[in-house]
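Minutes, project huddle
Topic: does the predicted pose make sense with zinc ion bound?
PN asked that the exact inputs be recorded in the minutes so nobody has to dig through chat later. Recorded below.
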Amino acid sequence: MPNASAWSSLVDELGSFVMSGCCAGCDALGTLLCEECDRALVAQPVRRETPGGLPVVAALAYEGVAARCIRRLKEDGETLLARPLGRALSAAIAHAVADDAPAPLLVPVPTGRSAFRRRGYRVPELLIRRAGFQASRVLLNVRATADQRELGIEERGRNVTGSMRGRHARDADEALLIDDVVTTGATLDEAARALTTAGFRVCGAVTLAATPRHSRFPGNAS
Ligand SMILES: [Zn+2]
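Predicted holo structure (tokens), as shared on screen:
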């Protein structure tokens, strides 16, 4: 029989193994993402429209395995998940852009300063890179906003209005907005307004996920 201290170090090791090596989708041990959960991250694009009429394609519904993986990426620093999630984003971008159309600039919705400080990375930009594209960082936050999760639909719109500014477009560039999760679409509408003011033509938005309309607990700040 191992003595008490051997048991306690074994328990410690198991604890750290569980923390570092369990599936983000279902907690199965020994993998960051099991095969079944990996399959749950295959894009099933759905179309939405923001209150301002901007067309949105979302790769996944923000629920179940996808929601858990996105939270692990956004809140727990699990950046390796950006690869399978970026694959889903890539499929949704292909869905949003017509084959014969010129490729638009992919413009990430800017990350707030406090979120960037907390995470050390910008989620939409990381997803664009992992999807195999280049991000055009032409949108800036010009003021801080309150956390959208705390707010109702109308308050969300007011909270973000006037919060962004676009760098000037060179030649009426076409832009496709990219964000991680769309809830009401208020953030995307503000981003589109700022880009249009700066001279871009905004053809729509693609998000990794969309909060189901029936959800009473929107899980994201958009
Ligand atoms: Zn799993």
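Observations noted during the meeting:
- Residues 215-221 have pLDDT under 50 and may be disordered.
- The longest helix spans residues 4-20.
No decisions taken; revisit at the next huddle.
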